[in-house]
Each structure stands twice: as structure tokens, then as C-alpha cells.
Amino acid sequence: MTILVFVGALLLAMAIGIPIAFSLLASGVALMWHLDLFDAQILAQNVIGGADSFPLLAVPFFMLAGEIMNAGGLSKRIVDFALALVGHVKGGLGYVTIMAGCLLSALSGSAVADAAALTALLLPMMVSAGHDKARAGGLIAATGVIGPVIPPSIGLVIFGVAANVSISKLFLAAIVPGLLIGGALWVTWAWLVRREKIVPPPRQSGAEIGAAFRKALWALMLPVIILVGLRMGVFTPTEAAVVAAVYALFVSTVIYRELSWRTLYPVFVSAAKTSAIVMFLIAAAMVSAWLITVADLPSKVIGLLEPFMDNKILLMVAIMVLVMIVGTAMDMTPTILILTPVLMPVVKAAGIDPVYFGVMFIINNSIGLITPPVGTVLNVVAGVGRMRMDDVTRGVVPFMIAEFAVMFLMVVFPWLVTGPAKFFHG
Questions:
Q1: The whole model's pTM is what?
Q2: Closest to 95 (Cα-Cα) out of 171, 201, 173
């Protein structure tokens, strides 16, 4: 009955059009009434306490870094470098999209920011070259969701805080899985364009590639600084977010000089608005997280999953299918905040590595950003690219299937995640 009250109140609030943050508060209040624990003071304390977290400071700073990179020319130079490397091969613009997406993922950590930048920069080029617009938009959307996987990742930060798991370990463990997803998109694109008769642009000379690399070098140095700093213990993930924002600001204003102090204001406003939405979601979800613990919902979920508890792979498959279903109707951040306190006790009881689970959980939630009917990234690509949502959805299907296939491959063979994680952790 407790699960029914919580889920029913949440779905009812969402169905009548209440924003997700307020829906989370409404479901929390409903659960408080059901448990005879309603107290406005407890509600307020949990909302304030939910956002009062040092690790969560990484969220607004990574948001700001992403906005500065897109406005300050870092994203454009990364695309130009990828174009110089592989733009001349058959279907080269698709490979450019995947390469640029992986590189941008190591800069911003936001699927929405990466998808918007790639759509604005590459979709017109792909259409002009003769590629099907729906397929091109689908590839860009599928590439955008690598953003929350390859570190730095806002999704991994939120999960790490909610699950009390080391964010640095999550970052380092997610590198190889993110690249595997990029490899799956590469193979899928190669299969889809094998019969196209589009004439690619001529191969660029070594000098031109070198020039593109030199222009992009300042942008390419950022993920190196962050990952080396985390690996060597120079700074925490929160401090890494500040380093990313300050570095991007310095490069955009002093090196590339594409941002002036006057044009910085709208960039800061945009980052502040996005950060406010995410942080309010987190704060609202903490009420539900506290009540989930009080109501002992995890033990009830463990009871439901009892048949799978003796087999880690079957349990992970069951959990991944559950998250896939939820991801079709809910955005990434609320899904993380609602399911993490429910699923983590199940994972620990089954003896599954929390870092491994966290990476798999975030991959699943990331792919959920391109699963209809909600599909936040699909909406971004459709809006920026001036496309119909139906066309983007049609174009993303083969790439979405490839990403889910890689995800379940990592479920069956956990060492694809845990092996590289141990290597990076030393």
C-alpha cells in the first residue's frame, strides 16, 4: 500500500501537468499523510537540506562550464578538429559527430548542452552533404547522451551524492563504457551509410590537420587536466567543476577572445536558470528519499526482487529493464533521485559493486533521454534543428538499439566496467 500511495500520487500529479519538482513534493506529502508523519517543518528541513551539499556544488559549475564552452568557441574548434581528422571518409560527417560528441562529453557533462551544440554545428552540414535529415538528427541525439556518461558527468555527481558513492571512482569507471557506447554508434553509422553515394570532401593535408589541432588544443587540454587531477588526487570532483569553469572562461575570453565581459552576462544567466531547475529537483526529491527510508520501501522492493537475488546478472537485467521503463516517462535527474534510495539497498544486499551499478544506472538513464515519448534530448534536437519530433524519433531508433545492446553486454560481462575501473583506480 505504501508503494502504491507514493507512486500513485507522483503519477497523478504528473498526469495533471504539475511540474516534476512539485510532483515530487506532492508525492512526499501524500506519503507523509499515509504514514501519519505530516509536519511542515520536516518538509522544509528536508528541502533545504537536500540542496545543502558541498559535492552538489559541482552541478552549477559544470553547467556554467558547458555554457561557456558552447558560447566561447571551444565546442566549434573541437568539431573542426574532428572534421579535419575523419571528414574525408565515406559518411565522414557522422564519424565527426561521434568523435566531437565524445570530446564534448569530456568537457560539459550535459547531454542537453552537447546535443544543442552538435545540432547547431553539424546538422546543417550533414543535410547539405546529402544525408537524410532524420537519420542525422537521430545520430546527433544518440551521441548527445554520451555526455552524462564520460566524465565529468552531472548525472554521476547526483548519483554519487544520493547513493553516498565516491564520485571520483564513478568518474574514472565511466570512461571506457562511454567510449564503448561511442564505438557502438560508430559501427551502427557505418552499417547505415554503406550504400549511400554521397561524395565526401577531400582529405585535409597534414598541415591543415595540425592547424586544426593547434586551434583545438586549449579545449582538448581541459578533460586531461580534470582526469589527471582527479586521478592524482589534486582536487575533488567539486573543485574540478570550478577548475573547468575558470579554465573555460579564461580560454574563451583571453585565448580565443570570442566572449567579452559584456556577452558573458547571458551565459551566466542561462547557466543559473538551468542550475536552479536541477537543484530544486534535487531538493524536492530529498523529501521523498527521506520518506522512502522511513517507510522502509527498499525492504519491500528487496522482497519483490527476491527470486533474482542469488544471481547478480539476472538481478541487474531486472533492474535495467525497470529503469528502461521508467526512463520512457521521466527525465534523468528525477529518475536518479527517486530510484537511487530504493535500489541501492537491493544492490548492496546482492553484493553488487556500487560503483559498477552507478555507472550502469547512469548509462541507462542517459539512454532514457532519447526514448519516446518524453525524450528530452529528442526535443532539443528537434527544436534546434527545426525538425518534427516524429522524424527525430524515427532516426534515433537504430542508434538507441545499439546503445541498449552495449548496456546489456556490460550487464552480462561486468568486467567491461570493473576491469578498466580497477586500472584507473590503481
A1: 0.84
A2: 201
